[in-house]
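pinging the channel bc i need a second pair of eyes. not urgent but kinda urgent?? the chain im working w is below, pasted from the shared doc
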Amino acid sequence: MKVLVIGPGGREHALIRSLAADPYVTDLHCAPGNAGISSEVTTHDIDAQDPAAVVALATDLESDLVVVGPEAPLAAGVADALLIAGIPVFGPTQGAAQLEASKAFAKKVMAEAEVPTAMAKVATNTREAADALDAFGAPYVVKDDGLAAGKGVVVTSDRAEALAHAETCFEAGGTVVIEEFLDGPEVSLFVICDGTHAVPLAPAQDFKRIFDNDEGPNTGGMGAYSPLPWLPTGFVDEVMERVAYPTLRDMDSRGTPFTGVLYCGLAITTRGIRVIEFNARFGDPETQAVLARLKTPLGGLLLAAAKGELDEAEQLHWHPETAVGVVMAAENYPENPVKGAVIHGLEQAESLEGVSVLHAGTSVNAAGETVVAGGRVLAVVGLGADLHAARAKAYAGIAAISWDGAQHRTDIALKAANGQIKLSEGTH
């Protein structure tokens, strides 16, 4: 089968690596890709958010499947255009992608489907925002209603900061969702969906803050690990029963069946599982850790979902090792990343046993050198017998790579490795 992956980042590099390992995938392309992806497959420099351009490329390549990575092309209707052209696509339509594109829409779906989530209020002006903040109290959770690449959420005990974030969203013409704060550890679960059926991947945990000990501003994600040894037995089954399937049924009843990845961002609170948010695509950087362990051929799984045949797909099989992925980011990320620095040590890191380097914000300069081209630059994934071993391999890979101003967290998966993640009494 011929597969085209849409997107420029680390998630897409992880998808490319997994698809390349699928014996049924005979031809693999990416648009637009990055320096790492272009060294492995043919890339095409098109606007990934232009539905007509994506359809034209997929038609020209005679693609049997198009996999859409990022949220922006989904919100732009790329999947709709491919479906109209008769090309199988893994990724939701514009209507179904509202689950991510609008936090308010997602809350409405969860209310109708009786999916457990945080209480929330939608605010369209400063007065409404102030009332909602006072109703829920600190810590305050303020979310931009639209797409914000994982950076539209502010969690703070400072009421003035919370209100200022809301006002920034209003000034940009948006609305905000203000929620009660959810206690407890967070879990990411990717659920492959075909509109009716669903198959869960292995749970992961990611790290949003830029600095160690979860300090500093939110980012798109600074690292992740999978699986989670501290999860209660039956966790995934409960999420499928109480979250994934009710959401799929509600979306189907609206006439917008959901095909693609339903990314469930969850908190395990003292009152049980609560949905923090939905995304309509693979998460980055969790994908890099999760797919590193997947033994089942990915192409066949995604094609089955695209064709509505997930109930016939084989049961998933996983490598027994643990995966830890650590993100290396540009100087001054997330505020104002410095681009252009030459990256050293990539081949040395890739040569280490159990280490893989996935490119996100990279490009090639006129001299043929790989350079920094984005905020999050690389994800270095280590596979090991347990969290300690996987961490050691990931950080050995990090130590081999350098550029001016490079930064990374040193504590990815550390608490889990040390058995320090505790679920509250009464958690179920």
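so The first helix runs from residue 10 to 20. and The chain has four domains: 2-90, 121-179, 183-312, 322-417. — does that match what u expected or am i reading it wrong
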